Amino acid sequence: MITIEHITKKFKKLHALDDVSAAFRKGQVVSLVGPNGSGKTTLIKSILGIVQPDAGQIYFNSKPIQSEVAYRDKIGYMPQIGRYPDNMTIGQVISMIKNIRNHGTRKLDEELIEQYGMHALMEKNMRSLSGGTRQKVSAVLAFLFDPEVLILDEPTAGLDPLASEILKEKIMREKEKGKLILITSHILADLDELTTDVMYLQDGKLRLYQSIGKLKELTGEERLGRAIASVMKSGYVQPTEQSGAIVKSMEVRYA
Amino acid sequence: MKVLLTILFFALGIQAQSRTLTVGKGQQYAIIRQAVAAAAAGDTVLVKNGLYYINNIVVTKPLTIIGEGWPLLHGDDKYEIFTLSGDRITVKGFQFTNSGYSAMNDYAAIKVIDATNVTIEGNRFFKTYFGVHVANTRHSTVRGNYFFGLTKTENTTGNGIHLWKCNNMLVEGNEVHGHRDGIYFEFVSHSLIRKNKSEGNLRYGLHFMFSNDDTYISNTFQNNGAGVAVMYSKKVTMLHNRFINNWGPAAYGLLLKDINDSRIEGNRFFKNTVGILMEGTSRIQATSNSFEENGWAAKVSASCMDNAFNRNNFHRNTFDISTNGSLVLNDFNQNYWDKYEGYDRNRDGVGDVPYHPVSMYAAIIETNPNALMLLRSFMVALLEKAEKALPSLTPENLRDERPLLKALKL
Amino acid sequence: MLKLSRYVLHDILRSKVVIAYTLFLLAVAVTLFRMEDNTSKAVMSLTNIVLIVVPLVSMVFATIHYYNSYEFIELMLSQPVSRSRILMSEYFGTAFSMATAFLAGVGIPVLLFQPDAVGMALLLTGVLLTFIFTSLAFLASVLARDKARGIGIALMLWFYFALIYDGLVLSILFAFSDYPLESLTLALSSLNPVDLGRIFLMLKMDISALMGYTGATYKDFFGSSVGALYTIGIMVVWAIIPMLLAVRVFKKKDL
Predict the structure, then answer these.
(1) Helix, strand, or coil (residue B170)
(2) Which one of A104, B297, C153, C231 is CB 3.0 to 4.6 Å from C140, fit for a cystine?
(3) For chain B, which domains are there?
(4) What is the block-wise mean pLDDT of chain C (255 residues), using blocks of 10 residues?
(5) Could you give the CA distance from residue C66 to residue C72 in angstroms, rounded to a whole number?
């Protein structure tokens, strides 16, 4: 569904992305993990066209994303920090995005609005909202149009445990619908039950991109967090550019 | 005794029964020349409506020549139409057109030479070279005529009303358009120009030279190429005239050159490039005039002295006064200046600090006219403020010591 | 485009800065008209406001607004909306709200006290300058890396156009006062939108003096409608070109 080919992005001297290639398919829930500044957000923003790569190409349904903006209609994006026009109310922001996406006919997914009790908050000014409530707004907007692809950048950061749980359940349900979901999170425990694949970035390089089963099998760890920690310690480098390729030599290199 | 004689003279005249000779199709006379030749002194020649081609009819006896129903006198582009000379001649009610043009002679529709008591009244002049050309004449009147000239170049168009070496003349209620000069006075004294309208002439609305003791009142001079010029004269009285819309690098509402002992009172100068330009003038009283929306209300050159501007209104002029010297020989007092920013603490209607009518930028533009383009810029405003604090470019002594806070009712 | 602009406009019009700007202009204009017994003097003072304050406030406000809208722009970028549309919407939203504030603050008093040709010229100049300096502010903003730099560039541009430029022109006019400078003077004015606005106003307020210029170029320029059309035309160009450049830069920018 999304294909990334040799993406490179430099900010000044920092290599945010260094020749990254990968492919994402329907039904995958890919966890983007890696230390701070490893290029996770840059990768997401590249896919969204917010960051323009220096080299390489990104395809959405086989079409290069520079050619048009319509592909974003199929993506729901929840940013790390969602900030909105100060003087608008939640209701206005939601109706604005509805208006821009202009889908009078498509059925809207208002599940999160219900579950977060947003209806009561519609008249509230964005300025007066807490960080958590803003995150809820971001979540609502990401899921609202029932998109084929969900890109969630630190979705649970700033959410209270209850809201966080609601969101995770929502992601689960979307996963079951067979959507492609990309998630970054520092809290690996959050991802444990959701993830089908893990992509590990470090210093802008793709270090690992494996299905969760394969990863656990290779590292012998049951928990995602530990599995990744093992990889980090090993200095392992994905030997082929082919996404999801089976890595046979893992054990050899794995100290 | 003299009075009695005069009455007797007139009584006899009436007894002699002045006749009326009628000219026109199917009338007593077919052409005007015959009627004029046949008429005796004091007779009336009545010309009926029609088109008459005329090659200079010379009138030398006292006659009243009247047109009825606007007969059209045509000069065939070659000839003058009337030449009047002598005493008590009246021409009234005609339309004149296509009088001749000559580069050598001042051809006119009506030429008046060596005459007295001539009246030219209520005629219309179209496409004439000179309209009415008067020379060596006294006690005569040009009244209520309408002129529309050739509107060609300055050299190929003559003046509407041209007076040369005359005295005790009355030019009243005429309207002149499209001539070189609307009204031209040279060596004309003790005369009155009143209620005329001179508009859209190529050079001056009024061109006035070497003419002393004259008065012009309630005239309107508008949209003329160079405005009005009054030059080399003494004791000229200018009252209640309007000088409007005279635009151009050499256009002036009123150009005064070498004028002495004159009065300028109650005039309105509106939207002229320069309201009044004074060169070499002295002892002029400019009082109760209104200067509005002119580029420069007045430019007073350094060669002027003892002139006084008192109780005038200055409104919305780009510059009030400009001068090319340090000019302190003229007096400005109790005028209303809309740019005045002083105060009146004792509330007597007179500002407590003097007004300097020459702005710094007006002084700069005197030396570099192109700089006008930067007028009203922030930078110029700052320069003006600096100059106000520390005057260096503007003549410090040129000031109105008693500027008025409220505009005068004029 | 309009759809988005509407939200930007709505957002800005409710911000306190715009309300303060409107009230400031209204207070100044009404005070000037009430204080001076002849309205022409008030108009002269208003001219300075239009030529100095309007560019300054437009620029600073637009720059600050751009940086404050950063997250909003980011939100929009993740939606199926093209970049040029986003920036143009921001531009029109900002320019329209500033123009509206100007028309409310200066326009109403002018219509009440001085509804003549000069008053109308003043309003047109103010609106054009608002659009021009908002456009310049957007260019400065997309070029600058951060808010402080952006505002710095904006202030410098304002200072340059409002003051320094005229000083340079004046020194050129004096240095070359022996040469015929008609066309040069007009050309130099075209390089500064504030000068163009000023000349447009002078065509209404000082035409008598301007007609005193010798030279055919000036006569043709001032003596007909050519001058007014020219100044307005070039001012429109001044609004369009920086914005086109801004869009070009913005399209390649990482956000």
Answers:
(1) strand
(2) C153
(3) 101-389 (2.160.20.10)
(4) 76 83 94 81 86 94 89 81 90 93 94 90 96 96 90 94 92 84 84 93 87 77 86 96 95 82
(5) 10
